[in-house]
Every structure is written in structure tokens, then in C-alpha cells.
Amino acid sequence: MQHWTALLGITAAIGIGAASPGPSFVMVARTAASQGRPHGLLAAAGIGVGGLIFAILALLGLHSLLNLAPALYLALKLAGGLYLAWLGWRIW
Fold it and tell me: What's the number of domains the chain is made of?
């Protein structure tokens, strides 16, 4: 179940990133303007699918790495906790 939660979070982040203007937006807009709406929609779908595949592979690779090195997982958790404490201190 935790895998689906992480995957949904990454998918949402990629969706928000895809919706914000950037180089991919320029490419999709240029494609749609020069070749028509169907080609623009295909370009946008290709960018979205590519980003999703990249995110899934990155998540699986990180999961495998942290399973192989439990000490690295502990260090990552401690570093994240210290970073959050530091941010809290700065905000306070």
C-alpha cells in the first residue's frame, strides 16, 4: 500500500510540473500551433508518459538501493529529521 501512496504523490507532483509553463509547454505549444491540435495532444501525452516512466524507475531504483543498504536508509531518515528540525528552528 505504501508503494501506491508514493507513486500517487510522485504522479501528482509530475502532473503539477507538467501543468506549469516550461520548456515542455513551449514544445507542446509550438507543435500544436505548427502541426495541429492532435499532434500537440500527442506531444503532451508523450511528455507525461515519459515523466511517469522516469519517476517510476527512479522510485524503484531508490527503493532497491535503500533495501540493500539499511544504514543508508537510517542516515537518510536522520538527515531528513535534522533538516526538518533546522527548518522549524529557522521559522521559529
Answer: 1
For the question of whether the overall pTM of this predicted structure is more than 0.90, the answer is no
Asked if residues 59 and 7 have their Cβ atoms less than 8 Å apart, the reply is yes
Residue numbers of the domain that contains 48: 2-91
The residue type found at 60 is L
SS3 22: coil
Q: What is the dihedral angle through the alpha carbons of 63, 65, 70, 73, rounded to the nearest 10 degrees?
A: -60
Write out the three cell numbers for 29. Answer: 505549444
User: Cell for 2?
Assistant: 505504501
List, in sequence order, every beta strand (DSSP E) within 27-84.
none
Region 41-48: mean pLDDT is 91
Beta carbons within 8 Å of 11's beta carbon, 6+ residues apart: 52, 55
Residue 56, CA distances (Å) to 23, 43, 75 in order: 22, 20, 23
* Cell 529529521, residue located: 81
